[in-house]
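Question (not urgent): is this output format expected?
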Amino acid sequence: MAEPELTRADGSPLRVLVVDDEVNIAELIAMALRYEGWKVEMAHSGTKAVAAAKSLQPDAVVLDMMLPDIDGLEVLRRMRGSDPDVPVLFLTARDAVEDRIAGLTAGGDDYVTKPFSLEEVVARLRALLRRSGAQRAAESSVLAVGDLTLDEDSHEVVRAGEEINLTATEFELLRFLMRNPKRVLSKAQILDRVWNYDFGGQANVVELYISYLRKKIDAGRDPMIHTMRGAGYVLKPAV
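Got this back:
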């Protein structure tokens, strides 16, 4: 079942600060969080993170323990000086129990150990944000794009009044496409969000399941699922 959208109390997007000196990792995390509808800013050093936290006033922080200037524990101490309640999810490449305890003892709320899946980061952040009072958006469980509807609670899919039966994986793939209508999604993004695979090596499974979906969603109808050569796939209302 889909997780309901989380927002600030005023209905505006949640703000998350991602801090990691490895730019590629920070960008991947930011990409995943933006797909949740959240506003994301990044910092690649401890001092920049502290400054960014003051200006952004984030609802949560994803914080790497090992930074090039000051470590994550010191960054946390300085952030908590101005915002004592901001939830913090530590990222650490260390596997020692002592390091995890140090982070939690210093006031971190949770941690994930590298390498991690983006889904795990999103799930742990959701849990922290719910505990800190983020609001569940009062939205319908039904996604609609053109004449295609998908009920995230009942798993019913209907196009032009005709019910369509999908496998669990086909459903998750369609849900991801429908959550991002008119947005080109790369094979890597689809792999990580639908299959939880790390990037690389399995792109052919995406092509295979896109073909399965097309046979059920688009067969005999104006197509909604389009291939953007070299970029990925996009779902949009039929013309």
